[in-house]
Write a structure and sequence with these properties.
It is a single chain. Helix content is about 35%, strand content about 15%. It contains ten helices and eight strands. It has helices spanning about 25-30, 50-55, 85-90, 100-105, 110-120, 135, 140-150, 180-195, 215-220, 235-245; strands at about 5-10, 40-45, 60-65, 95, 125-130, 160-165, 205, 225-230. The protein has an eight-stranded parallel β-barrel with strand order 1-2-3-4-5-6-7-8, surrounded by four helices. The longest helix has 16 residues, at about 180-195. It starts with a strand and ends with a helix. The mean pLDDT is about 95. The chain binds 2-phosphoglycolic acid.
Amino acid sequence: MTNNIYFIANWKMYGSTSTLSSLNKLINLSKQKKYNKAKIIYFPPFTLIYNFMNKFKKTKISIGGQNCHHIENYGSFTGSISPKMLKELGCRYVIIGHSENRTAGETDANINKKILSALNKNLKIVFCIGETLKEKRKKITHTILKNQINKGLKGIKNYKNILIAYEPVWSIGTGVIPKHNELETNVSNIRKILSKKTSVKLPILYGGSVNDKNISNLKNIRGIKGFLVGSASQNSKKFIDIIKKTIN
Ligand code: PGA
């Protein structure tokens, strides 16, 4: 595993061409030696990927798609984007299995097909997993995470292009984050589940209400190699603070 610390900006269904100028300071930060190990990856909505590509040209900031279809190349699937299309645009990453898509009907089997297709197109995968509040209350988080990992990563031979984003569903967009111990336990359980599948040490990131205030605590969680940031990433100042407070 490298020393990189991942900072993922997931813009969801937000953003417009006018928001691009707010990224100038972030570009400056990404060029500073001090932040060399910050691996910054933006996931704009599909409609802005091209604009982001131009904006981040000649920088080390990467771009990814927020989802993709499970068919690798082309097909009659209205409204969908394939791994090949993302790749052609210059994306290096794709988020798969985000809870907002799971809630909208995406199954573990769909997720598995998407991961296999995207890997075939040489995209790096940010594979999201996490338990709901109901599952947490039933104390079945470990089983849920194990199932999501085993089903989502079924048949994968090469793990080196996969990152895991642990995102408790009850923490996304709520302002509530897990307690220190709970988070460390879940991350360590994820590591154990993964170690039964591969000797590759996949980076495990945390996502769910990460902001410029709670980052000072979150950065001390053992085993975490970065953060998937939703709403706070749409505010460049907050996102910059998150990076600065993590790497100081
Ligand atoms: P949030 O979103 O930071 O707004 O909670 C996280 C996510 O969607 O992954």
